[in-house]
Amino acid sequence: MTKKIIFSPDAPAAIGPYSQAVEVNGTLYVSGQIALAAFEAGATIEDETNQVMKNLGHILTAGGYSYQDIVKCTIFVKDMGHFAQINAVYGSFFSDHFPARETVEVARLPKDVRVEISCIAYKS
């Protein structure tokens, strides 16, 4: 098994004892991403989700992957009432390839953001 830590300076640094992503044998496991800067600026949920997806993209690129390589996402939301807006932004990052996914409402997220998304990407 080969394991490689992936880091992008364009995405938020880890705020705990974890890596932005870890690649193992052609599979990239990307830790949950949040939008610190967008959230602090009083952004809309759409702005926050857009920044989260861009953060994922920066990490994917750093590992040599793209959104088209994503096979699974997990979305954590603070308020399921924002589902439609989050879903619209999320969907705009994919063309004809939609990964498997689940969306879970949670009581609280790190730094009190409203959305966090993690993903798994695969390249053969």
From TrEMBL:
CDD domains linked: YjgF_YER057c_UK114_family
Pfam family name, one: Ribonuc_L-PSP
Family listed: Belongs to the RutC family.
Protein name: RidA family protein
